[in-house]
Design brief:
With about 300 residues, the chain is of the alpha/beta class. The protein has a domain of about 190 residues: Spore Coat Polysaccharide Biosynthesis Protein SpsA, Chain A (Alpha-Beta Complex). It has nine helices and ten strands. Strand 6 and strand 7 form a beta hairpin.
């Protein structure tokens, strides 16, 4: 069984792109939405209730979506703790067993059907009692929308930024991350992370789960935001190491034409995955990982 969870918030309209890309291949779907319409940083946001309800009724013809409203903005918890807590409560709502997949509203799978087929090859029906694993995908982060297209992170011949989206046992410690062994796949997901309006990005930078550990100081956020605002389709090539927390995670920037995200996805050609099948198999082998960890510990 494929169980898909979405954290729904102020940017819910991005679900109009992300939900259809997974809907047909999901057995159960959960939307978790703060009942007070507050962010993980306890800031209230506007939310068009009528538009959301109208869209959801149209977008869920098979009645797969469970709308789960609860208090996900707890005073006394950090934004990241609220983030992780919401994901755990949503996983509990979906119940034990099966593949638990969490996709954020601004993430668009290029081929979710192929991804779910790979999950089922790994384990056709997880019970939650096996030795747990996570399965990771490759992000293609969109940085800024400009008049003629999108500036995005170009990883060249490097392994892209990866994120665990599926697990046999949800035990989220930091957003979707846990201590389970991570299996890497060559599946790509477009991540509309920074490609928002100026107001939307500023709100995100001050309210997302990472606000407590990335660009913590307001002056740092303001400086990064000011740099982002001047990016265009001509000067992007002069910037490198752009990630706000660990600069080298986003090594270079690229440009792809497209008047909308949909057009970008039509025009964008995912790079050849940088690891050969053999190297990927070695990367995903627990025993090899243990030997590497032991070697590193002995000779560090």
């Amino acid at each position: 069984m494929i169980k898909v969870g979405f954290c729904v918030s102020y940017d819910w309209e991005m679900l109009k792109r992300s939900l259809p890309r997974v809907y047909a291949h999901a057995d159960r779907i959960c939307f978790s939405l703060d009942k007070n319409r507050a962010s993980w940083n306890r800031q209230h946001y506007t939310f068009d209730e009528v538009a959301f309800a109208t869209w959801l009724a149209q977008a869920d013809p098979d009645k797969k979506v469970d709308l789960y409203e609860d208090d996900f903005s707890i005073d006394g918890l950090s934004p990241m703790q609220n983030d992780s807590r919401q994901r755990m409560l949503m996983a509990q709502r979906l119940g034990e067993g099966g593949w638990h997949v969490q996709v954020d509203s601004d993430e668009y799978f290029l081929d979710f059907g192929s991804f779910t087929r790979q999950l089922k090859k790994i384990n056709p029906n997880p019970t939650g009692r096996e030795k747990p694993i996570n399965v990771c995908v490759c992000w293609v982060p969109l940085i800024r929308r400009v008049p003629n297209g999108y500036i995005y992170v170009d990883f060249k011949d490097q392994v892209p930024e990866v994120v665990p989206v599926a697990t046999t046992l949800p035990q989220y410690e930091r957003a979707r991350h846990s201590g389970h062994f991570n299996i890497l796949t060559s599946h790509y997901v477009i991540h509309e992370t920074w490609a928002r309006s100026e107001d939307e990005l500023w709100f995100k930078m001050n309210n997302w789960g990472h606000v407590g550990d990335e660009l913590v100081e307001r002056n740092a956020r303001q400086s990064y935001y000011n740099l982002w605002k001047v990016l265009d389709e001509y000067n992007y090539q002069y910037l490198s190491n752009f990630h706000p927390a660990q600069a080298t995670v986003w090594p270079t920037l690229g440009f792809c034409p497209g008047k909308s995200v949909e057009e970008f996805m039509e025009n964008y050609k995912p790079p050849v995955f940088p690891l050969s099948p053999l190297r990927l198999a070695m990367r995903n082998n627990r025993n090899v990982a243990r030997i590497k960890a032991l070697y590193s510990k002995l000779f560090s």
